[in-house]
Amino acid sequence: MIRILSEKEIKKLAQLDLDVIAAIESGFGKLAEGNATVPPIMMIPVHEKDGEVDIKSAFIKGIPNLAVKVASGFFRTRRSGSPLKVDRCWSSVPRPAFLKPSCWTMAT
């Protein structure tokens, strides 16, 4: 069932964090200036399981860390009603305050 939300309901549910927006804006600015490295996504197909594993990474010059995220999607699992696989991302230094402690992501 699809539920249509009013603008008021959306504003109540989706809070904007200005610190997060500033961090994202800064990252894209560094990328535009040539001060960030974002390699192409590495995708590993897993045909036997109707899925894939994606590896994403980024590095910003002048920051003593880098980020690597490994996420997977196994599409047959979702259609069967089984729980979704949970994936994880890592950072080489303590996380920024705006990230959740373990940086969990859900596969689709």
Question: Can you give a write-up of this model?
Answer:
The protein has 108 residues and is an alpha+beta fold. The chain has a domain at 37-106. 26% of the residues lie in helices and 32% in strands. Strands 1, 2, 3, 4, 5 and 6 form a six-stranded antiparallel sheet that branches. A hairpin with a 5-residue loop joins strand 3 and strand 4 (66-74). The longest helix is centred in the first third of the chain and has 15 residues, at 18-32. The chain is flat.
Offer a concise description of the structure.
By secondary structure, this protein is α+β, with helices and mostly antiparallel strands. The chain is built from three helices and six strands; from the N terminus they run H-H-E-E-E-E-H-E-E.
* Quaternary class: single chain
Rg for CA atoms: 17 Å
Low-confidence stretches: 91-108
Strands, total number? 6
Overall 3D shape? flat
The residue-averaged pLDDT reads 76
Helix content: 25-40%
Strand content: 25-35%
Q: Determine the N-to-C terminus distance.
A: 19 Å
The largest β sheet comes out as:
6 strands, antiparallel
Could you give the order of the helices and strands?
A: HHEEEEHEE
Structural class by sheet pairing and helices: alpha+beta
